[in-house]
Amino acid sequence: MLFWWWEFALFQINNWSFGLFFFLIFYAITLFLLAALLFPDNITEYAGYEDFFLKRRKWFFGLLATTFVF
């Protein structure tokens, strides 16, 4: 929701550049990947969501740190 509100203010930008567009696309991709790491399609191989998260927490927090850098 926060990303949507932040994106809503982008209508004020008159001159778009490739760098700005690339940043916006890459930031949206990182948010999508964070959501995909939290809610997988198939969880039958794991004991539950907690087990799934604990096995992939390094990827999640690494990606979260990357998102904060951007």
Please tag this protein with its features.
single chain, 70 residues, mainly alpha, elongated
Summing up helix and strand content along with how strands pair, one would put the structural category as: mainly alpha
Arithmetic mean pLDDT: 84
Poorly predicted parts = none
Instruction: Give the overall shape.
Output: elongated
Topology pattern, helix = H, strand = E:
HHHH
Contiguous helical run count:
4
Question: Rg to the nearest angstrom?
Answer: 16 Å
Distance between the termini: 18 Å
- Bin the helical content: 55-70%
Number of distinct beta strands: 0
Largest sheet: none
Proportion of residues in extended strands: under 5%
Give a description of the structure.
The protein has 70 residues and is mainly alpha-helical. The chain has a domain at 24-70. It is built from 4 helices and no strands. The two termini are 18 Å apart. The mean pLDDT is 84.
Could you write a compact summary of the structure shown?
The chain is an all-alpha fold.
Secondary-structure map with pairings?
Elements: H1 2-8, H2 18-38, H3 49-55, H4 57-69
